[in-house]
User: What shape does this take?
Amino acid sequence: MSGTTSYHAGVAAEDCVARHYAKSGHAIAARRWRGKGGEIDVIAQAGGETVFVEVKRSDTHAAAALRVSDRQIRRLFDCAGEYMGTLPDGLLSAVRFDVALVDAQGRIEILENTLAA
Assistant: This one.
């Protein structure tokens, strides 16, 4: 996949994941939120909990899961901490970290609370 095609496929996957969370009752607080250390793909909120979502797209869910690197996890945690500073309870806010896997057919698998800080 070329760089441009890959970029657009990633954006489309993020769109699908954001719709998935919205349909399940979450408010989408941010998309592609940029902090000092990087970007969070989707930030959703429901029931007083903020969910930070890393979206990965590949031919299969298993291949997408393999694309989550330690570096990306550290970046996600750093950015989440920065975002949490904007929330009323700051770093004491209720949060979780999900990974959303999107396959070539657009099927979504959510791994809830799969990353531990």
Summary: The helical segments are 3-23, 61-65, 70-84. The longest strand covers residues 27-35. The mean pLDDT is 91.
